[in-house]
Amino acid sequence: MKPAFDSRIEKAISLRHQQGLLRRTQAIGDGNHRQFALNGERFINFSSNDYLGLAASEELSLAYQQAIAKYGSGSGASPLVTGYSTTHADLESALTEWLGYDSAIFFSSGFSANQAVLFSLLEKGDLLLQDRLNHASLMEAGMLSPATMKRYRHGDLTHLSSLFVPSTPTLAVTESVFSMDGDIAPVGEFIQQCQIANAMTMVDDAHGIGVLGVDGRGALSLCQDKPDILVVTFGKAFGLNGAAVLCSKAMSEYLTQFARHYIYSTAFSAAHASALLTALTMIQTQPWRREKVRELGGLFCEGAAHLPAYVDTQTPIKPWVVGDEAHTLTLCSALKSNRIWTTAIRPPTVAKGSARLRITLSATHTPTDIQALVDALEQSAKEFSCQKR
């Protein structure tokens, strides 16, 4: 039967190529920082999720190095064996105190954290309500779960309220900041509506934590009430990787018993937990990083708002919506010729006809970087307009 799989693989890759949707990795040098090297050329990086610049921070790097020297490189086991250390416990205490929850349970990624919650919690007869633009990890888990999943129109809480079914166990899920559009969900109103309907709430705060609010508390800075379940990831503003599910003691105990992603995965190391503690302290005590990102966003708006593809957002995510997949790839290539690195986002990650560049800003960028980006976008817009004529 091997030839059948070979043929299937060849056809699938060929189709992706014909559609202009083929994805490829590229090995960059110098790490995922403000600038990096590729094939002997240097690019300004506008595709990183390192919003606060912590991944590029010498302070965080030094703390990580010292932690590795003290604790070693790996945890050696899953959390329920010997992979949960006193340093993990310290990180849990710091996160729960900061965000106001009873417990935090750690995962290797936000993808696994989201899937662990939905797969563990939902049963047949339950109702799962999701914003239409929620992350793929949430959508996939919802489709594969035994629950009935319904998607409400993006950010449309009137539509959400129409989907509640009385006396049906219901979990409603939204992101705080949507990763491809950069817009912010009405988290406070979302929680209030769900409370009225007696539904459990879950917020994926991957792109909000560390960034939103004067104190960086993400989704919680948008509302008075907390969601029942808050997922924070460490691969964006924290500058590292991993994730935590913040919840009640009872929910934490439940996930510890039934979340297979937690039970059967090796824990991230004590050194990693220690570095995350340093990152958390930096988020709490260095508000200048958030302020700088906002200032850079203002400069980008001043320079690019007159261009037709500009989309205004209040977050570091600045989608540059082109529409056509081929035109998006052409624009992406043109920017690279000007040493500007962006990523072309195409279906199925976004809806057909909404291909875009996903431009992201970081506290490591300079005003000169922003001007270089604006100049390159303006030049490319003029060239494309001439080609259309």
How is this structure best described in words?
With 389 residues, the chain is α/β, with parallel strands linked by helices. It has 14 helices and 13 strands. Strand 6 (170-175), helix 8 and strand 7 (200-204) form a beta-alpha-beta unit. Helix 2 runs antiparallel to helix 11, helix 5 (110-121) runs parallel beside helix 6 (136-144) and helix 12 (288-304) packs parallel to helix 14 (367-388). It is globular, with a radius of gyration of 22 Å. The model has no long low-confidence stretch (mean pLDDT 94).
What key phrases describe this protein's structure?
single chain; 389 residues; alpha/beta; 7-stranded mixed β-sheet; 3-stranded mixed β-sheet; 44% helix
Tell me the strand percentage band: 15-25%
Judged by helices, strands and strand pairing, the structural class is alpha/beta
| Amino-to-carboxy terminus distance | 52 Å
Instruction: Please tell me what the overall shape is.
Output: globular
The low-confidence parts are: none
**Main β-sheet description:** 7 strands, mixed
Helix and strand string, N-terminal first?
HEEHHHEHEHEHEHEEEHHHHEHEEEH
Alpha-carbon Rg, integer: 22 Å
| Average of pLDDT | 94
State the total count of DSSP E strands.
Answer: 13
Percent in helix: 40-55%
Helical run tally = 14
Strand order of the largest sheet: 3-9-8-7-6-4-5
